[in-house]
Amino acid sequence: MNFPSKVFCRTYQLGFRLAMPVLPYREPKLYEHIKSVPNILDKHQIKSVLLVTDPGLRKGGSTAALEAILQAHQIHCAVYDQTCANPTVHNVGEAKALYQKEKCEALIAFGGGSSMDCAKAVGACIAYPNKSLKQLKGLLKVLRKLPVLIAIPTTAGTGSEVTVAAVITDSEQKHKYTMNNFTQIPAYAVLDPEMTYTLPPHLTATTGMDALTHAVEAYIGGSTTKETRKLALQATRLIFANIETAYQDGSDYKARRNMLHAAYKAGLAFSKSYVGYIHAVAHSLGGQYNIPHGLANSVLMPIVLEEYGPAVYKKLHMLGIAARVAQKEESHEEGAKKFIGAIRELNRNMNIPETLSGIRKEDIPRMAKHAAKEANPLYPVPVLMNAKELERFYELVADWR
Q1: Cα angle 189-195-198, degrees, rounded to a multiple of 5
Q2: What pLDDT, in 10s, does the model give residues 356-386?
């Protein structure tokens, strides 16, 4: 990246960092069991809700307990269960139409980040009925209050239950775009470990590593605060201590609970400190090939961290100490390399591949441009890169490298 571009990016990021104390961040009110949902709705005098979830969860019976609880309290529950792994503009349109048809008054997002992103986007469209989703994409485009949104994560990874972001795929253009608005932070989050028991091991692994990516990118970026650094370190410690247990025994209540809280803390951290090129590249891969976001992040993370080089050694060393894979007395370089090695070991232990299949060389320049547009100037990455420089990451994760 040339010098003028670097100056522009860093000036833009400084502006956001200075504004951070006055920006309207808020945290959702936390509950720990789905039995609390009717009480939340009663408080707002809501009698009709749209439950946004995905086909696998509904078919597998994961939503049954919640639907029964709502029915027992005479709360009408319409269900949109067609959310795909990378929610699309079409998903949002269908869910919005159902919300309006059933005269719903609130949204419940049940699932992983995809369901929550879809529900957030539906809420934005309800708040702006005369605007298309395309008109609402970007930063601070949704200022009106959304319908009450209750997020119930069934994965411990995305942190979407606490974030300002929704990521939607434009299937026609084959890329993802983000919607970042304070109004999209859910009003309530229900962190019920039992709702994650049915999560398959491979999704436990990749969503958990997604949470680690949030913590790591929030910590190594240039817009951290004392609060976000503390949250990122806590999340990293919890993930390293619990992810393999949750992967091996999905019904381990303590491990599942700790992973939910790790994802929540990481979500809080990156909401304020942002992410980086790992996410930007992963989003473009998801948009182009529908590669699951957690998988892309898992594979990309050690590669991108290595490419940053000495600029991140000190911070990665601190993360390594928090993860208990590095020692204080070691050099920053040694500690950083141990931390990156520990990430690779976690991936191996949970059968996460080192490369991604299906990447075509001719697609790389276009994806890199999308990634650069997403990341620059917003993401306060430790080392700035332009689209041409980002192309290297696609080549490094491709299975033909």
Answers
A1: 145
A2: 999 999 999 999 999 999 999 999 999 999 9
Tens of pLDDT along 155-164?
998 899 999 9
Q: Are 211 and 256 in contact (CB under 8 A)?
A: no
Residue 339: is its pLDDT beyond 80?
yes
pLDDT on residue 172: 78
The one-letter amino acid code at 339 reads: F
* Residue 33: half-sphere exposure toward Cβ, Cα within 13 Å: 5
Residue 29 to residues 32, 158, 333, Cα–Cα distance (Å): 10, 18, 40
pLDDT at 173: 73
CA 337/CA 71 separation, integer angstroms: 53
